[in-house]
């Protein structure tokens, strides 16, 4: 399936080094952080998964993105189903119970499942008894949002600990803060897991690859150097460039410049951004603005500028601290090393920048 996708630009070297680390027993768990739309999911599904299977691993991919409050439960059941599905013949009882669990959840999502549940540790145990597996856990930091997932995280941790050789895990996340929380907080002590690997920004080869794929599908030429200029201008976000090229595939009349202009404003995203901004208290918005400008959040002159907009006394460092914590918790901003902050979603950052400059120039 993945090999047929000629739009995909393989990250072969990175995938190979991850697999080497797992194959050789050097690593048991790795963490990959990158902002939104930078290609984490694509890397897991199209680079790691097929290669891992070639190396004799079974691969379980799970994204925690969409299941909201049920994220933990859905994960446990999906993993159980995966484990059971692989071991039908000799693990009938497990299969039967899992099906009951699944049916229970399907029927009563949001209420109490009635069937007796396997703990995650049991599921992991069952899984590893039948062969080696790589878990690709996408946006895993979502699990830390709810206190009730603590037990599940504990079970996962124990399962990984006991089965290091048979079970490897690659965590990804778009929130550095969320992953940091998951790895360092006492109740979910994953801290000795998760050596961090970088997902490098894509290079010119990506643009050459997209230009070739465009030629292949349309028979029309596309200047890869112009593509590269646009890619740089949009902050090296592959999802955005793909959207531009897709627009040009679908509409032969569009020039590159027109497609960029069309796609630079992703209407769906912008509605979301506007909602996020609207929901923030004024002080939080000002802290966000300061993050955008790279201003030191707690410095006196930053706070004095905030006061001017607030039309009140200069906010104290405690108030600014609380606002910062709220933004971190909601994963709107992310803590970098040495007290630096950044906006988690580069798209939101760009949108805010455009908004600010349009307000400054009358
Ligand atoms: N290696 C690649 N080759 C071709 N296209 C890519 C590649 N990586 C990413 N893309 C494009 O960028 C889009 C976004 O990538 P992806 O969904 O993997 O990002 P993500 O980091 O998981 O983002 P999110 O935080 O939104 O989940 C993909 O749908 C695809 O169109
Ligand atoms: Mg993703």
From TrEMBL:
Highest taxon of the lineage = Bacteria
> InterPro entries annotated for this entry?
P-loop_NTPase
User: What protein name is recorded for this chain?
Assistant: ATP-binding protein
| Species for this entry | Uliginosibacterium flavum
